[in-house]
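Need a sequence for this fold. Nothing fancy.
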């Protein structure tokens, strides 16, 4: 994996299971941990022993001010965990509610912090609720690196400004505000960037030469927003983040689901060193071979297997998709290719079909 990121020659393409890294706690007594179910144990072992692992980690940054958000946890009649968070701004109380079910490895936001444009203006006029400091604790990340050793690379994970702002709203309200009031929306992005960039600088300086994943650009890809707003809301901020990371010897990998064709030039213009997951049609709108030919000399390409195919395709058909991805991802000249899915199953019970398809991936890519 390290040789791939450096653009060096490798004896085979690197590959992994994306979110399944072999670091999952299969003996957890947490009722919300799906990996304790026996159906997951063989896959976790397969990832640990036979893939080029890329476990992700977010670095804790000591904050200059204490959070003024209060949280309350409860459980509904189905045993789902409900977390209600509140924050007082002037005469207004803002609330966010999340829900996590026992058998699904995800958290849903059922009520978002901001409900409309007026809420955004109040948020912008209030003091930052948690200004970033620049004191970094790298020890948890260093322990993760020691844990995985030479079986892969630990990744530093961060969101970009649009990810922070968009998730303050439900998706429909976000797209309306972003489309109808660009000046207001840029104020919000700038406010996030003022705190995010110094933190990113501090982390990159404390942990130079690492691989990063930047999430969030997908909030501005078509059809959510037109390409010219991607250029306005994503590209300049992403360019700064990439510069900070790579100035300290790291590699910045951009994560963006969905339709990429219209914004690939923007992504490439940031100077980033990697891109994932490059979803094939119909989920995306570009073939991997096209991206490899036009942009593969700059970026290591990660992808381009669909998670839904792992769960639904008969193994012979899934194997065909694995072979095609390997062919297109390594065809001609390019910096490098990493075979991986776009996501992973998230139900408590892993199906036998999914397990067989993961095994086929190892047999083909690792053989």
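Here you go.
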């Amino acid at each position: 994996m390290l040789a791939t990121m450096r653009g060096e020659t490798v004896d085979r393409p690197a590959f992994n299971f994306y979110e399944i890294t072999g670091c999952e706690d299969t003996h957890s007594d947490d009722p919300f941990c799906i990996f304790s179910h026996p159906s997951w144990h063989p896959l976790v072992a397969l990832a640990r022993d036979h893939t080029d692992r890329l476990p992700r980690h977010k670095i804790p940054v000591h904050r200059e001010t204490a959070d003024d958000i209060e949280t309350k946890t409860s459980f509904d009649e189905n045993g789902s965990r409900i977390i209600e968070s509140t924050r007082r701004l002037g005469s207004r109380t803002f609330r966010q509610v999340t829900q996590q079910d026992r058998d699904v490895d995800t958290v849903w936001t059922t009520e978002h912090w901001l409900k409309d444009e007026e809420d955004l203006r109040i948020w912008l006029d209030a003091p930052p609720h948690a200004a970033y400091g620049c004191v970094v604790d790298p020890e948890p990340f260093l322990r993760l690196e020691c844990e995985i050793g030479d079986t892969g690379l630990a990744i530093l994970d961060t969101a970009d400004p649009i990810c922070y702002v968009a998730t303050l709203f439900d998706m429909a309200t976000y797209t309306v505000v972003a489309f109808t009031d660009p000046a207001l929306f840029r104020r919000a992005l700038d406010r996030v960037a003022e705190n995010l960039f110094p933190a990113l600088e501090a982390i990159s300086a404390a942990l130079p030469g690492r691989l990063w994943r930047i999430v969030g650009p997908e909030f501005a890809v078509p059809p959510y927003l037109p390409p010219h707003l991607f250029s306005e809301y994503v590209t300049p901020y992403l360019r700064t983040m990439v510069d900070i990371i790579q100035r300290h010897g790291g590699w910045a990998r951009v994560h963006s689901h969905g339709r990429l064709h219209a914004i690939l030039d923007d992504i490439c213009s940031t100077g980033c060193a990697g891109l994932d997951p490059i979803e094939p049609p119909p989920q995306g709108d570009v073939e991997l071979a096209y991206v490899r030919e036009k942009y593969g000399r700059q970026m290591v390409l990660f992808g381009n297997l669909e998670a839904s195919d792992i769960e639904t395709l008969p193994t012979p058909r899934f194997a065909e998709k694995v072979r095609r991805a390997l062919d297109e991802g390594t065809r001609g000249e390019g910096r490098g290719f990493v075979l991986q899915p776009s996501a992973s199953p998230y139900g408590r019970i892993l199906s036998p079909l999914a397990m067989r398809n993961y095994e086929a991936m190892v047999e083909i890519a690792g053989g």
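For context: The mean pLDDT is 94.
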